[in-house]
Structure formats: C-alpha cells, structure tokens
Design a protein that fits this description.
Blueprint: H1 2-6, E1 15-20, E2 27-32, H2 40-51, H3 56-75, H4 85-95, H5 99-102, H6 118-137, H7 145-156
Antiparallel strand pairs: 1-2
Helix pairs in contact: 2-3, 3-6
Length: about 160
C-alpha cells in the first residue's frame, strides 16, 4: 500500500464530509481537503470502521479527530507516516490551545482557557492510535512510533 504513505494533504480546508455507503448502514463520514479530494489514509481507516459496523457516530467522531491530527501535522510540516511519539505529545498541547492559538503564527496567552478537555484529548488519542494500528497491519512502515506508543500504553497502568 505505497499510495497510503505518499499522499499529500492540502490544508487548510480539511472538512468532515458525510457519505452514503453502498452496504450496511448507509450513513458514514470521510475527510476531504479544500479541493474536495478524499484524504486517502483517513478514508481507508474510516471505510474499515464502517465495514466492521462501528456506529456512524463513532465514525464521525473519529473523522473529526483525524481532521485535527492532520491539521496539526500540516502546521508542523510532518508527514503522517513519519511522526514520532514526541509529536503526539505536542499534538495534545496544541489541542489545549484556543482555536486562535492553534494557527502557527499566533501565540496564545498562558491565561487562555483550554479548548479541549482531558476526556476529549484522550478520545482523539484513541482514534489516532487505532488509525496507526490499522495502517501498521496493512503494511505501512511507521518506524518506531507504534512500538513506542504501545509500550507506553502498557506501562501507563502500573
């Protein structure tokens, strides 16, 4: 699946788009760029979620979570298949910024209220983790990201 790791995403303008599926529940969601082109790595994952009969609400939430992730990656000049664990940590900090502070050319004041709660950030991390696990199972070379992430998740409960 070499096409998955070579997709370039055009941002800003990522948006979650409803789609009608030919099987199962007809409602589902995808992520498109400003030219209405499907963001392929995300589409493959969301299609999988639909195929294994995840709730349309779950698919929609994951689509929004991955939109935020891909926006963050673009702002920081990162390719989705070359990220490191440290980038995931920076993403969580970015989520806590007010929307105006998320733009790379705007500084947020320390007193600004966090936009994203801890529970929401954790749900987004779960979506991103599942996205990377899916692509790893489908042969995308993710370096040590997934191995490091899984090891951290295992030790977190101690």
């Amino acid at each position: 699946m070499d096409w998955l790791s070579s997709v370039s995403v055009t941002i800003p303008g990522l948006r979650v788009q409803p789609v009608v599926m030919p099987f199962g529940d007809p409602r589902s969601w995808t992520l498109v760029d400003r030219d209405s082109a499907v963001v392929e790595p995300v589409e493959g994952f969301l299609s999988h979620l639909h195929a294994v009969e995840r709730s349309p609400n779950t698919v929609k939430a994951y689509a929004h979570d991955l939109r935020d992730w891909f926006e963050f990656l673009d702002q920081h000049g990162l390719g989705w298949s070359q990220v490191r664990l440290e980038d995931v940590g920076r993403f969580v900090a970015w989520l806590r910024l007010p929307m105006t502070g998320r733009a790379s050319n705007v500084a947020a004041l320390p007193t600004a209220d966090a936009v994203c709660s801890e529970a929401t950030a954790n749900r987004k991390l779960s979506a991103i983790s599942a996205f990377y696990e899916f692509h790893h199972r489908h042969g995308v070379d993710l370096g040590d990201l997934l191995v490091t992430w899984q090891r951290r998740k295992t030790h977190a409960g101690r």
